[in-house]
Design a protein that fits this description.
- The chain is an alpha/beta fold.
- Helix content is 34%, strand content 13%.
- The protein has a five-stranded mixed sheet, with helices on one face.
- Strand 1 and strand 2 form a beta hairpin.
- Helix 2 crosses helix 3.
- The termini are far apart.
């Protein structure tokens, strides 16, 4: 093997201090092109007129489970107060084994904190409940 280290006649022992910026410019141009192509797709997606409010009439089935949260954050299974989240998880696990699995409907007071509703959602997840719905009231007519 041999290595070319330059001729001793040159007398130039200076270090080459120029940086080759061609690969850097190439990469930057490719990134610029990618951004120019993708940004208009993100900002101008399909023009839709989304509904502002929608009241969906739902059938109340006797097998549906209704869990309520009052303004103080107390959780109720139908009309019975649940003192602990673990009790709620145990009840939901019993319900989740039914075929077909019933829907859990959450009634949350408008002034209640999200923490109470979050506990119910987490309990449903832990119990393996697939269908969770929120019960709301339609707005007053004309307002």
């Amino acid at each position: 093997m041999s290595m070319n280290i330059g001729s001793p006649d040159d007398g130039e022992d200076a270090v080459m201090s120029a940086i080759n910026t061609t690969p850097l410019v190439d990469v930057m141009l490719v990134l610029l092109i990618i951004f120019l192509i993708t940004i208009p797709v993100v900002t101008t997606s399909i023009k839709l007129s989304l509904p502002k409010e929608r009241v969906e009439v739902r059938e109340t089935k006797p097998e549906n489970v209704i869990i309520s949260v009052d303004p103080a954050g107390n959780v109720y299974w139908y009309d019975q107060r649940i003192k602990d989240v673990e009790v709620l998880v145990d009840k939901l696990k019993k319900v989740s084994t039914a075929k077909p699995q019933p829907e859990v409907q959450i009634r949350g007071d408008m002034t209640s904190q999200y923490e109470g509703v979050g506990k119910i959602l987490y309990a449903c997840q832990r119990a393996g409940i697939v269908k969770v719905a929120f019960i709301t009231e339609p707005p007053a007519l004309g307002g």
